[in-house]
Amino acid sequence: MITGKNYIGTRQSSKSGITYKTFNPELNTENPWVFHEASSDEIEEAVQLASQAFEGYRNISGKKKSEFLNAIADEMEALGDELLETYMQESGLPRGRAEGERGRTLFQLRSFAELVAEGSWIEASIDTGIPDRKPAPKPDLRKMLIPIGPVVVFGSSNFPFAYSTAGGDTASALAAGCPVIVKSHPMHSGTGELVASAVIKAAQKTGMPDGVFSNLNSSGVEVGAKLVQHPGVKAVGFTGSIKGGRALFDLAAKREEPIPVFAEMGSVNPVVALPSALKEKSDFWAQQYAGSITLGTGQFCTSPGLIIGIKGNNLTEFTQALGEKIMAIDPSCMLHPNIHGAFNNLKEEVSGQPEVNVVAAYEKEVKANYAQQKIITVEGKTFLENSTLHKEVFGPFSVVIQCRDSKELVAIIKKLEGQLTGTILGEEAEIREHGDIVEALQNRVGRIIFNGVPTGVEVCPSMQHGGPYPASTDSRFTAVGIHSIKRWVRPFSYQDWPDALLPGELKNDNPLGISRLVNGEKTRTEL
Amino acid sequence: MITGKNYIGTRQSSKSGITYKTFNPELNTENPWVFHEASSDEIEEAVQLASQAFEGYRNISGKKKSEFLNAIADEMEALGDELLETYMQESGLPRGRAEGERGRTLFQLRSFAELVAEGSWIEASIDTGIPDRKPAPKPDLRKMLIPIGPVVVFGSSNFPFAYSTAGGDTASALAAGCPVIVKSHPMHSGTGELVASAVIKAAQKTGMPDGVFSNLNSSGVEVGAKLVQHPGVKAVGFTGSIKGGRALFDLAAKREEPIPVFAEMGSVNPVVALPSALKEKSDFWAQQYAGSITLGTGQFCTSPGLIIGIKGNNLTEFTQALGEKIMAIDPSCMLHPNIHGAFNNLKEEVSGQPEVNVVAAYEKEVKANYAQQKIITVEGKTFLENSTLHKEVFGPFSVVIQCRDSKELVAIIKKLEGQLTGTILGEEAEIREHGDIVEALQNRVGRIIFNGVPTGVEVCPSMQHGGPYPASTDSRFTAVGIHSIKRWVRPFSYQDWPDALLPGELKNDNPLGISRLVNGEKTRTEL
């Protein structure tokens, strides 16, 4: 049952008197639940409780943390239809998507459970001492990763499960040993509360300290800003817009003690269509991209917003085919009237620039909050000279750029901001010829795709989800996959520490049986 | 030969018309060489050249980078006495220290050479595709670490070799595949130029692209500020004061594209003396600490500035013994009159606080720029209430805090800012009793030492040199050891990329024979 209250650890609280509601974009009406915005007192309580919880939680064994993470997945699953229906009511996304995203979220939680149960992820490193070394003895040094402290997580509008309350940021932070305070997303606070209740139940069932998780409601920016500025908060995870992510990054950088912010933000995900791709498989790629551009109503961070080719009949034919195929796709609902409104405004702003040609624009009447897809095309020169054309239009919209030659194509890639992904369509031999294109693209992105579409982010260790700014605020980390845990940990060394007092990870007899770097060699054997 | 010019890659340049000299603190006179401050044009040229060099250097093999790094060490060694003498003339440090620090610097360079020649450090991860997976095919994903781009390095005053021109930051950045621009330290620009000449020679001999290394002179803050704000610069390494590091961090955070700054800054390195240590080994520890506090004239980032004990006869005896032993040590020269002046001012400011008792103060006349050591003592309550007493006094100075009880001791540790190190003196059984002290200390530091002194930073994989702010600007990284390379790299994924076009690190047949994570298992075998 949705109460609309905040979770301060296990306790539900509604002190502020300020309320808001979520919206059902499919029915174009408000949802029934009333959410209580977190007050300053509640923020303070949640951070205090998280700081206290950290003292215990940071030392809890990997096995216990694993039980907790698996229990979150189980409790989330146990919410069954109520959870799926709330998700659909607050996002306008269809049931199949809700089920798929829930599956992904459970998989993420269970992957982290497996990672911390095994234990080698803490990168244990041991250099044994040499007491009689000259001129000075060599001390015994042992290093491992330890949690950084309480983490604040800002969920995204477009992934109410996988990048929100118990999504990737929360799962990785809890796995690392950091308590989490979620700033609930105002568009799906009901979904958020249900998931939060699952996390709280799991924490209680597995004996976690109170305060290991809190969930605070907020419809504005105040609660988030206060959390990021609170001295008790030690890191921030964010998924959303450049404007939102940058604002939090700036607040965190101005603190007396600056803290790391990993914000995964905007991306237009350029696609380079080499001549061969458009000659041999023009129709195939037009079909694939019509699907990729409209997938999830274009509301993915990896949605392809730019397709770059070299001017000529093949590109013209591809562009026309793309236009025809995208017009055949039925429009679908966006997440929220605000997102729908922003889509329409930005789509018109970009389309209204000089020297823009419209390839396809769905203009038939649609239901409220449904997105009308659009494809435009511009010359390379025009794109280079007008930065408005570089803007991310969040929704089913894409720009086809017609370059004079491959030199102009490289110049365009070099001028792009940082991106999550870059894609190349073509033949192997052709890529070899265009090494400069691949090089330029590699410098601007976190992941490069050959003959595919950028949508669909596989959750696996080899996935990089992040990239040069503004794709993310720190390209040295990923938001997806087990390595995303590295955002919330710091190395810590013990020098000449008595074996009996060392954590299990670093003891001589390796009681946890983890893989360790011992005097430069990877091994699972004892010392 | 020292020319006083800047190195813009291989080219020497002196355009600004603004000059400065370095100072010999031992002789209390200026050194003869005239250094030319880098002009705006020269800064622009160096960054442009570094950006161009990056296009080639980022793809150079580990073997070739290894040759380059080893050649730097060889060329540095070949500079022989001229280099050692310049170091001594510009730092006032004795010959033994110069030789020791050179040895450490060569070791660092050669360690990184070994690391990149072997190659596994790039953390290759391969998840092979499953084309017939339902509901969607699983793509082939392969990830590795790639260099982030040109890095600007700010050397430290107190390590003219090991944390300056070709020191840890430069060696790790070059190893990562990042070109380096050094902002030469104004106190040892001659030493810096000689080392720079060694790097340039090594780059030429091993065929590195011009611009892989530049060295810019500057006596003020302008050159550094311009470098950090230049869009072509992608990361910053800094070793020095909190004021300097924070100023650069703030500039980097305010850029249109924020970039990572790893600044290793201040630390007072608290030492907790448990009752047993002072009962059984009071004299021994007094001797050890008199030595540690005055080592290198107290000019180490790990110098112990705070000793915390519980009030009583044992602590009083230890404090007296420490005072006596430190008075018996001959004063030594500081790095520069400015550092000497700052030491005297801060020492007097802290000593002049109310309720401070002087334990020992060397007051005999000393040579110019020689430091007069001092030990003061205060009650725990006084320390808690007066944050001036928390200040780092860079030089041979330490505060002994007398706590009422262990509760007050824990309260003091919790109130400290972030530190590089924390030390505990005592017996194993006693530490078990005082788990709260260890816990509190662990939360504030990057390295914890048992029955030792914090000075002496072993260069090995298990060393953590960094810590919660302000010990460093990002506690998730280290400035010392092979893992310091992680500051300058970002993960990058290839999706469904043709094997023939993948870098060697990720090809099916593992031509480099490196260790890789393949479908979750660490292995060196081919696919």
UniProtKB/TrEMBL annotation, chains A, B:
Q: Where is the Aldehyde dehydrogenase domain?
A: 18-467
Keyword Oxidoreductase set for record: yes
Pfam families xref list: Aldedh (PF00171)
Return the SUPFAM superfamilies for the record.
ALDH-like (SSF53720)
Recorded hits in InterPro entries, A to Z, give:
Ald_DH/histidinol_DH, Ald_DH_C, Ald_DH_N, Aldehyde_DH_dom, Aldehyde_DH_Superfamily, ALDH_KGSADH
Task: Drop me one GO molecular function for this one.
Answer: oxidoreductase activity, acting on the aldehyde or oxo group of donors, NAD or NADP as acceptor
- Name the source's superkingdom: Bacteria
Per its UniProt record, what Gene3D superfamilies does this chain match? Aldehyde Dehydrogenase, Chain A, domain 1, Aldehyde Dehydrogenase, Chain A, domain 2
Keywords, alphabetical: Oxidoreductase
Q: What is this protein called?
A: Aldehyde dehydrogenase (NADP(+))
Kindly list the organism's lineage: Bacteria, Pseudomonadati, Bacteroidota, Flavobacteriia, Flavobacteriales
